[in-house]
Every structure is written in structure tokens, then in C-alpha cells.
Design brief:
Layout (H helix, E strand, L loop, with lengths): L1 E5 L8 H11 L2 E8 L5 H8 L6 E7 L1 H4 L4 H13 L7 E7 L6 H21 L3 E6 L2 H11 L3 E3 L6 H9 L3 E5 L6 H9 L5 E4 L18 H12 L3 H16 L4
Parallel strand pairs: 1-2, 2-3, 4-5, 5-6, 6-7, 7-8
């Protein structure tokens, strides 16, 4: 199995232990190394670099950081992305989150930074990992205009839009919130298997209340998708692994 979206750096002192335990259970973890509050991309990169190969890195700028409109920080992160463009498997996560960005100024900041970084992805010929919350349609229309290949991580938008995203060749992440976020379950039921990757978003979104989430909990999603679709676990495991390898161009 492959966890298509995690934040192992956010385990801080436990990161090495989490990687080693994940190695026993998974083929790879795609880690979204993202500028967000105290988690700076260069610090996270330095922490995870010894594990690259098993950890497959992306680099991005979280929309909940983008709402602050700090362009000096954006330029620094962009320079870091360009420096490591040949080592990452995607640009992201980037996107729009209108749940937290309530003011027009914050939303404008998010939009400007998102569109700027989409342009960087196009220039570098990289796929994008998207964070879209209460802005899924706008994000979808933006990536269609940009002509990038995209992965909607932890999708929780409308079912009909999920199908439209899939029909246009993009990937959708079904996460470990599948049993307590109705929209996640609806997307998992509706989507064709070839459009799904599975993810944890660890250390967040644990399927077990009151516990941290870990990359190996991606097995929970594989099992639930198999049950919902009436398929064998091994079929879902193989398909979602194949989808992640193809989308990110993983060399495993």
C-alpha cells in the first residue's frame, strides 16, 4: 500500500520511528512538505531527507498560510521549490480553503498565491496536490484553465463534482475520515477505482477517536473502500497503489 498524503515531519521527535514502522507495512509514503505556520519547508526537508526513497516528497504552500499574504515567504518557498524541482514528485499542497479564510482580503491572498504557484507548476511541468475546502469548484476550474494534472487530497466536496474531476483525468484522495465525514464516503462509493488514491493526512484525521493518525492506517481506507464497492481488499490495494505510482511517477 501507498499512503498518498501524509505529514511525517509533524511527528517531530517521533518522525524516524514513524518512518521505520511505516516501512514494515507500506511500499511508500508521499509526504506533502508544506509551508504552514511553524513548519517551514527547508526544516521539514532536512528532517525527512535521510528517508527519501521510501518517503516521496512534494513541496507546497498551505492555503491557510497563504491567507496571510506574506509574499516574502512565498518567494522564499518558491525558490526552494525551484532548487529541488528535480527531487520532488509534485508541487503541493496548494489551493483554497474558504472554511478558514472568511474575509475577502484573506480569500484574495489565497487566490493570488494559489494562481502564482499553479504557474510555477506549469513552468516546472509538475503535477499538483490540491487542498480545496468549500472552494472545490473554483479550484477545479483553475486547474482546468492551467492544464495541470491534479490530485484533490482529502476530498470532501460534492459527489457530482468528484465525478467531473475524475472524468477529466484527475485523482481524488479518499482519507481515513471515511467513516465520519459523509462526503468522503459518498465520493468513495461513487468514484471509479481508477480515479482513487488512499491517504491518511497523518498525523491528522485518525479513524480512531482521540488518537494520532499514522501512515499505516491507510489500510483502514483500503478496507472500507473494498467493503463499499463489494471488491476484494487486494484488488483495491493493487489499484490504489498503481494509481499513486502513475500519478506521481514514483520510481519504486
Amino acid at each position: 500500500m501507498i499512503d498518498a498524503h501524509a505529514h511525517v515531519e509533524m511527528f517531530k521527535g517521533e518522525a524516524g520511528e514513524v518512518v521505520e514502522e511505516s516501512r514494515k507495512r507500506l511500499k511508500a509514503v508521499v509526504d506533502s512538505i508544506t509551508e504552514y505556520r511553524k513548519f517551514h519547508v527547508w526544516k521539514s526537508w532536512e528532517l525527512l531527507e535521510p528517508y527519501f526513497g521510501f518517503i516521496q516528497p512534494t513541496l507546497g504552500y498551505a492555503p491557510n498560510e497563504a491567507r496571510r499574504g506574506n509574499w516574502e515567504k512565498v518567494r522564499n518557498v518558491e525558490a526552494f521549490i525551484r532548487e529541488h524541482a528535480g527531487e520532488i514528485v509534485a508541487l503541493g499542497e496548494i489551493g483554497l480553503d474558504f472554511y478558514y479564510a472568511e474575509s475577502e482580503e484573506e480569500r484574495r491572498n489565497q487566490r493570488e498565491i494559489f494562481h502564482h504557484l499553479l504557474g510555477v507548476a506549469v513552468e516546472l511541468d509538475l503535477p499538483v496536490v490540491l487542498h480545496a475546502r468549500e472552494a472545490e469548484r473554483e479550484v477545479f476550474e483553475a486547474i482546468q484553465r492551467a492544464g495541470v494534472r491534479a490530485y484533490f487530497h482529502s476530498y470532501s466536496g460534492p459527489r457530482d463534482l468528484a465525478l467531473e474531476i475524475a472524468e477529466n483525468g484527475h485523482m481524488i484522495g479518499i482519507n481515513t475520515g471515511i467513516d465520519f465525514i459523509p462526503a468522503v464516503k459518498e465520493a468513495a462509493e461513487a468514484l471509479p477505482l481508477e480515479s482513487i488514491v488512499v491517504e491518511t493526512d497523518s498525523p491528522y484525521m485518525s479513524p480512531y477517536r482521540g488518537e494520532k493518525n499514522y501512515p499505516w492506517n491507510v489500510e483502514y481506507v483500503v478496507k472500507r473502500v473494498a467493503e463499499l464497492k463489494g471488491l476484494e481488499l487486494e484488488e483495491v490495494e493493487r489499484a490504489t497503489e498503481r494509481n499513486a505510482i502513475k500519478f506521481f511517477g514514483l520510481k519504486l
